[in-house]
Each structure stands twice: as structure tokens, then as C-alpha cells.
């Protein structure tokens, strides 16, 4: 009795240690999940703050959009009044005009009158675009032509619309975008024969864009592609091609032979301007600079003839100092702006993107026009020209934030000028720190891929960086992982659900194991007389294993579904099969447990799913499963032999595995073990005595086989004599 008490004490101590270890593990997992929850909470708060900022920007943008709608209503009313105006008063905007006024937006270029204007008119559906272009409202015209190109158009109308869009972009100094649009039209013409008549106009437009970018070789090739079918364009292209040849071979143009001293000084000023990162080419000096330099030169007086005995005459003004100060001040401003740009995280002007260079050039040209053009005399500029005079830096110095935008009833009232949206103003500081995202906010080309009659693209814009950015690739290295895919939030939620189910499997298996140990302790503690008076604590261990198996199956199905999306979740699948095998082994389903442990080895080939302790546990349980399978095979063979010997007269034991209840697991296992032992003994006796027939064992023999109760020798002899077998 003392021995049994000490054994029970040891079992209780061992069970207490296991429970303490389990509780410690659960506490560690609790701390881990608490840390994960805190990190998720912090990320959620950060994301909420970003969302609030974006909402503020959206509110400001909505206000600006309302202002735009009011302005559009006024412009529509004015356009309805002016619809009856003759079309001859509108400049050609079909891509063949190469004459830009000094007051045009984005350039101060002046061209000679020899570049005659072609009177070909675009399609009638682009009448409103022509109207806005004639008013130099290029932003509205560009939006209108983009809207038309997105709709259904005939191939001829689409080509004319692309030429019109290229011309508008060229007037806005978006030369690379204009080249990309020309390439789109060139591809469409090459695919459809009925559009070959538009090839000269497209080639001429491409050549002129290349010429403005000072890409003389490409411009000469484009002008050379203009065929002689169109006499006007061919003559203009030939003249421009000769002009490109003169500049390529370094020949001195004829008009430079008669330059005066003042004009030579202007050439020096033009050379200073060419050192800045501007892409537009000045075909002739700006008018404003000519008048300014001549005014300065008039202050200089030539010295009179020297009279003997007198001092030589001196100029009233020092011409060198008069010209030194403005140049020195200009150089200092350029150096200071470059230092500021580098200090704020920007790029070197020579390393900027093309659209950034075009924007800076437009601002610089507009400043020159403001000093010498109609803007200096008080004439208001229209459309985007007046708006672009205000840079974001000057606006930011005047405005505290984008929230200062407000509306008044029925009128357009805003602190921001036209052309500078609240979204661009609020987003500019972040874009200065992250310049790689600027191209994502620019208008993309081709203008209409879905509405175009042809699909696909095999021709790219030559020398155009905008073509590669039509469908840009996002810099995945600098974007958070949970933002790289539209469905990534759902995928992460599913992965978290799988991990939660696996955590539940572990808790259930540990609980079932504790209940099994409690059952044995309870059976050792309760006396046979008091049986039934106290509830059995090990009653729910089978249910715990069953719930763990269901959770593992659900987690395995979700992990398999996620693995189809090439997420490489083999380690997660290995853990699901591990807990499925543990649950099946706990329920004594050895066949299913063996299959589950076999799949664990398949998915854990890279050793990234299970821990070393779990892998060792899998090996031990796999050996146990093989032993159980072998015993089950022997039991089945014993049943077959018993059927052969009895002729099938004995009632077969019904397999209670499918209809097992919660309280019958123990008795079923005992019966199965008894059948296995009985089959083994039958096989041994058949091999030993080589009997053709043997009657079923008596009750005493079965008691001896199962429980080890000895059978009297006299009884054994009597039984053998009845069977007709002599003892050896």
C-alpha cells in the first residue's frame, strides 16, 4: 500500500511539472501575441494618422474642384456666345503649325516668318479644342482633347486628335510628351493603309520637336521622312533639314556676318543662358533682353579725340562694372538655388527628369516674358500662363497650409492661383524628399489605349523617356509589403487566421494530454466501492483531440489555398499536418496519423516549418505508427485464420470505430488488443500443431490468453483428448 501511495505521489509531481511547463509555455505565447498586438496597434494608429492627412488633402481638392466647376460654367457660357465666330480667325492646331508667339506659355522662342502656317483644319469634333487653344487656355484644351480621345473615334479623327494634342504639348514645352504622342500616331498610321496620308504631318511634327530639343540628327532624319506628296510640308521640311545640316557641320549662318557690337553682346548672353539646364532652343534672341541691353549700352559714351596737353576723356559710366553686377548676381542666384535644392533632398538640375527640366524651363521663360512681355505692362495673362508664374516655393512662403483654401457663394475665391491645385501644393514637400514618385502623378501616354482601334504597341517613341513611363513599374523596394498587392490585406488576414488555428490546436492537444493523465490518476485514486460517485475528469480528452483535428484540417485547407498563389507557405503547411497527426494519434487513428506524419516530412524538406523538438517527436510517432500498423495487420490475419478454422460460424466482432461514442474509446481499444493477441496465438498454434480444424477456445483458455489465468492440467488433457490430439 505504501508503494502504491509513493507511485501516486510521483505521478502527481510529474503531472504538476507538466502542467507548470504548459502554463509557462502559454505565458510565453501570451507575451508574444501581446507584443504582436501592440505592434499592430501602433501600425494602425500610424495608418490612421496618414489617413487623416489624406482626408485633409481630399477635402481641399474637393474645394478646388468646385472652383474649377464654377470656372468651367463661365467658360462654357462665353464659348456659347463665341460659337458663331468665323473659323478663319483660329490658328491652325492640327500639328502642322510651327509658329509660336512670344507670349505663348512655356517659351520665349521667336521664329521667322519663313515658317509659313499650313491651313489644314482638324476634324469638326475638335472645334472646342481649337477654341481653347486660340485663347491660349492650353490646360483646358488638353483636358478636352484627352476626353475626346478616350471616346469612340474613327482612325482619321484619332490621328488628327493626336496631332492636335502633340501641338498643345509642344506649346506647353512638354516636348517629350509630344514626341510620345507622335510615336503613337506613327504606329497607328503604319498599321492602317488609309492613314498613310498623315505620315508627312506626323514626321514633320516629330522633326520639329527634335529640333526644339536640339537633337539635330534625329530632327534631320524626321524631316527627311517627309515625302514630296505634300508640297508645302516638303518645302518646309527641306528648309529645316538644311538648317539642321548647317548646325551639324558647324557652318556659320549668313545673318551672323553682319552682327553689330550690341548683337555680339547678345550672343554672349545667349551663351550664358545655354549653360542652364534648358532644353528649348532660342532661334533668335528674346526681344525683352535686346531692349534692356541697348538701354544699358546707351549709357556708355565714346571718348572724344585726345587734345595734346590734356587728359584723355573717360566714360561717364564704367561699362565693365555695369555689366558685371547683373551677371554676378545671376550666377550667385543660380548657385544659391542649387544649394537649396540639394539641401532639401532634391536632384541636381542636370540629373532631373525631363518633365522637371521642362517645368523649370517654363518658369524661367515665363519670368522673362513677364519682364519684357505684356505681363510687365499690366496685361493679364490667361489660363495656365498666369498660374504658372507662381512657384510652389513662393506659394508655400505665403500660405501656412492647404487648409486655408475656402469658397465663397457663387464666386471663385481661393488663395491658390489657377494651375496650382491644393493637392499638388500639399504633396510637394513629400515629393521633394521622394523624387522617384513624381512620374506617377504625371499624365501618361498613350492617351487612350482601350478606346484605340488597335491594341498593343511595337513602336516606341525615339528619345522619349515618357514612353517608358506610360505604364511605370512601382519601386517595390521602397513600398511597404502590405501595400504591394490589392489583395495583400486579405492574404495577411488569412495567414493570421491559420496561425491562430494552429495555436488553438496546440492548446487543445496539451489539454487533451492533461486530461488523459488526470484520468489515470483518478482511476488510481478512486476505490472500486466509490465508483460512480465522482465524475470522471478524463471524459473529454477524446473531444479535445477531435476539436484539434478539425482546427488542423481547416488551417491546412487555408494554407493549401494560399500556397496556390505562390506564397511559399510550405512551413505553415508542415505545421498543420503535424497537429493533424498529433490529433489523430491521440484518437488512436493510426492510419490517418501515419499519413499526416508522412506529409510533414514532405512539406518540411527545407527545415523551416517545425522545430527540432517537433521533428524528433514526428520520428518517434512515425515509428509508433508503424508498430501499430504491423499489429493491426497481424490481428486481421488472425481473424482470417479464425474464419477459416470455424467455417465462418462465429459472429464477427463489429468494428466500433465509426460508431464510437465519447465514453467507449477505452473499451474499444481493449477489445482490439484482445483480438490482436488472440490472432497471434492462433497462428502460433496452427503452425505448431498443423491442425485442419480447431473448435473455439473455451472460457478458461480465453481467460488464460487474455488475463494470464493458468488452466488446470487436467482440464488441458481433457480438452486435447476431446479434440483427438495426443500431447507431445
From TrEMBL:
Coiled-coil features, chain-numbered ranges: none
Stretches for region Disordered: 71-106, 272-355, 648-673
Regions that span the bilayer: none
InterPro entries noted in UniProt: TPR-like_helical_dom_sf
Tree of life domain: Eukaryota
Gene3D superfamilies, per database record: Tetratricopeptide repeat domain
Protein name (database record): TPR-like protein
Organism: Didymosphaeria variabile
Lineage: Eukaryota, Fungi, Dikarya, Ascomycota, Pezizomycotina
Biased segments, Basic and acidic residues type: 318-341, 649-673
